[in-house]
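Support request from a user on the community tier.

User writes: "When I paste my structure tokens into the form, the page sometimes reloads and wipes my input. The last time it worked, I copied everything first. Here is what I submitted, just in case something in the input itself triggers the reload:"
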């Protein structure tokens, strides 16, 4: 469930704040809504930094981009967009039902969560889980982890390798020592002598 207002998520900070995350993979920028700070500890911390830098005014990121917070992150931009949608949707559900029946709120959040991961392939869930870890979004991390476990539960090692599109390693391949290249062997030998 989204966190209650913390100092970093106060209306003063959220109002007019902007955080831009640039994917290190495709160099695309994804603008995150300040409402994401209720889900993401990473976004929350960046918005807290915004409050401090706001006194100094906006700074130029690169030509044509003016903003208060800009960070490069090792997550693909399409995954960042999905994470942003997840956070904003949960925030909207929480706001729409926060003052009503608590059970209705929990049902709405559960329904959204089930729909969010439904029919998503394993590879996409792993990428979302990685993004949730990097952005410190506990709700998304738990959701994707549980869905991945459900998808792999009861499968053999071979089936898991096939599902994840990984090569099948035989016991012989693991037991057979790999042969170093001559230059690497020389480097290793020199290190052992010193």
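"...and here is what came back when it finally went through:"
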């Amino acid at each position: 469930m989204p966190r209650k207002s913390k100092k970093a998520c106060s209306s003063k900070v959220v109002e007019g704040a902007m955080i831009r995350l640039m994917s290190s993979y495709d160099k695309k920028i994804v603008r995150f809504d300040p409402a994401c700070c209720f889900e993401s500890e990473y976004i929350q911390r960046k918005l807290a930094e915004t409050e401090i830098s706001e006194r100094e005014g906006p700074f130029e990121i690169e030509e044509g981009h003016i903003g208060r917070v800009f960070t490069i992150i090792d997550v693909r931009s399409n995954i960042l967009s999905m994470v942003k949608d997840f956070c904003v949707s949960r925030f909207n559900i929480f706001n729409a039902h926060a003052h009503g029946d608590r059970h209705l709120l929990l049902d709405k959040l559960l329904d959204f969560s089930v729909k969010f991961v439904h029919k998503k392939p394993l590879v996409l869930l792993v990428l979302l889980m990685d993004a949730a870890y990097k952005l410190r979004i506990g709700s998304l991390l738990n959701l994707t982890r549980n869905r991945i476990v459900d998808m792999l539960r009861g499968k053999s090692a071979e089936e898991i390798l096939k599902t994840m599109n990984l090569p099948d390693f035989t016991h012989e391949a693991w037991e057979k020592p790999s042969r170093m290249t001559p230059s690497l062997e020389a480097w290793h030998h020199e290190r052992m002598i010193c």
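Agent notes: The reload is a front-end session timeout and is unrelated to the input. The mean pLDDT is 77. The beta strands are 19-23, 29-32, 59-62, 65-67, 69-73. Escalated to web team.
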